[in-house]
Amino acid sequence: MTAYRPVDPPARVLMGPGPSDVAPSVLRALGAPTVGHLDPMFLQVMDEVRAMLRPVFGTANEMTMPMSGTGSAGMETLFVNLLEPGDKALIGVHGVFGGRMAEVARRCGAEVVTVDAPWGQALDPDDLMKAAKAKGPFKVMALVHAETSTGVLQDLSPMRAIADAAGALLLTDCVTSLAGVPIDLDKHGVDAAYSGTQKCLSCPPGLAPISFSDRAVTTLKTRKHPVQSWYLDLNLIANYWGGARAYHHTAPVNMNYAIHEALRLALDEGLEARFARHARHAAALRAGLQAMGLELPVKASERLDPLTLVAIPEGVDDKRVRGRLMSDYGLEIGGGLGQFAGRAWRIGLMGAASTPRNLTLCLSALSASLQAEGFKPKADPLAAAAEVLAG
Amino acid sequence: MTAYRPVDPPARVLMGPGPSDVAPSVLRALGAPTVGHLDPMFLQVMDEVRAMLRPVFGTANEMTMPMSGTGSAGMETLFVNLLEPGDKALIGVHGVFGGRMAEVARRCGAEVVTVDAPWGQALDPDDLMKAAKAKGPFKVMALVHAETSTGVLQDLSPMRAIADAAGALLLTDCVTSLAGVPIDLDKHGVDAAYSGTQKCLSCPPGLAPISFSDRAVTTLKTRKHPVQSWYLDLNLIANYWGGARAYHHTAPVNMNYAIHEALRLALDEGLEARFARHARHAAALRAGLQAMGLELPVKASERLDPLTLVAIPEGVDDKRVRGRLMSDYGLEIGGGLGQFAGRAWRIGLMGAASTPRNLTLCLSALSASLQAEGFKPKADPLAAAAEVLAG
Fold first, then answer.
1. B206 vs A252: CB contact, 8 Å cut-off?
2. Taking the model in full, what pTM does it have?
3. Rounded to an integer, what distance in angstroms lies between the CA atom of residue B260 and that of residue B327?
4. Is residue A2's pLDDT more than 70?
5. To which CATH superfamily is domain B270-389 assigned?
6. Of A39, A70, A108, the CB nearest to B68
7. Whether B151 contacts B307, CB under 8 Å
8. In angstroms, what separates the C-alpha of A106 from chain B's closest C-alpha?
9. In this model, does residue A286 exceed pLDDT 70?
10. In this predicted model, what pLDDT tens digit does every residue of A347-377 receive, in sequence order?
11. CATH number of this structure's domain B24-267, picked from the four choices 1.10.3660.10, 3.90.245.10, 3.40.640.10, 1.10.3720.10
């Protein structure tokens, strides 16, 4: 006999940087009976997941599928498959995840050149272009589309030209943008991208959707050295997800049920409508936060709809406020990461969690918790939010 | 709108090499509401998972936890953390998974020496000892405890002395033994082991339990080069699963609910009772198969209770029989892998699927399907199985 009781999680409201609230039908799909990883029914699930991922990524790439790990495994998948020892990588760093990309690339034996921007700002395309021309050629150029550590959205439109000047494949982190913000890999000429399931797809964490262009696949297939990770070797994995169905590893069957349902919900809603919903609710949340007198460190043109960075006012205790939101309201918002630790909160409105109900609850609960800290809101956040929602 | 219908898997009976049938309470745990990966409730789940994994592995190792990937990610975790470029690895190969270990070790830049045994047989300790003495010293010695490709159980008792002669850490693959067969890492002096969730734990695939001895941890901490995989770097991951709770990657929350419940069920049953159940049902299955006149290629002393290899009789079509079992009975058994492809089947009786009902169904359905192929059973398999079950 064990002393442990069965898992019985409380119903939280997840408005941090992810995981986000999971839709009931996705949880039901997750808990459906497991079948074999070569069962005809599961092979159909795999095919449909691939087909549904393509429009969400905005691509026709044949090699589009979920890797059997979390978002960080997706990041590692891109670098281990596309870099070889001695290759050069140009990497934009303006937050935790750009820094992580540089670290992963170094562990592949690559020579890494970073182009930095202050945290809370987007990368400057001119800086990237200068480095591309002065320090190239590069094998890959990588940057974060949606910096989960800062809530900054990077405009991808100038990047293909810069990558061309660098002679590089263009790689992007789309962890917090996928299914919440348009990505348009093909339009922007992105060669490889990765994401996670637990942000705007509102699926539990555990899979990392990736997409590789034909050019990236050619780079992969003409490698001189084997991919250093056997587990993430796309040469092998493509034979399971593709036509041959050759056993590589045992796919996480139930997690693939869940992403299937999450993708279905996204496409049923319609991607344009889904993006508009994320934008509308983010605008209402920001209006409410600003009405209270809180500062948003990211400038308006670079804000990421699914995740809003808000400065913690002077004299307010970070952990006490987040603790009160959790204990009194069951509401999770995110602390700051890296340079923003203790200085800012991250409030997510992602996927199924991007609702008027959630943003209203968050503004109300945050206002009350800040007042308990002695902070006086300037104006009524709910009125400001309601005005935006009313359009 | 998408054209795809919600996932609605049929209720299979999973008697292949895994995944095995998942207990209803494990599926319910899997589908419970997602909470944040730093939620106090989830941190408690993590602690309890670690505490429950230790007795199942037969260890007191502090560094015992599930990795966020499938069993093969567990394999890679051991090698990337313990090997550095130029290290020597002694690896026993008597099936697919020993061969995979050698490949993974090579991709870590190690010099690999293999000791081979014919598929369907255990490794010969004398062969290993000779290589340990003649070709050592080695950094690691690795072998498969339960070869999922052949159904062979390797006796671990002589291995510590051989690893000592090699000057090596002792590594074992316990994918198909964990929670179905005694492992006793500490008793056998194993330094690092990995497993998967979808075999005798009867949890869906998606996590890889691992355990590292203090000596293995020391090797990890005194590395000269960074671990080549950032995602699997135990130096970093230990800071999340251990006291500091430092964010590394977003843990697969719901999969950890599921392994928590699967471990709870295993400990509630009692490990000795659980091992005895696997042994009893395996004996009954084998008696039934042999009564029909089918051959078991693995000799009696080396058979793995959770997975039985059975030769496909002359003139019988592999795929047609497996197809009939699936279409007529919803019953999945495994085809052969590697050298046994088309020559043998693999029948699993793992975890929640190791029941008299399942072995009876399998013997009945297989007998009927073989007769449809023109094969004449020698004797009644059910009578032979019932005799074993009656004790």
1. yes
2. 0.98
3. 33
4. no
5. Aspartate Aminotransferase, domain 1 (3.90.1150.10)
6. A70
7. yes
8. 9
9. yes
10. 999 999 999 999 999 999 999 999 999 999 9
11. 3.40.640.10
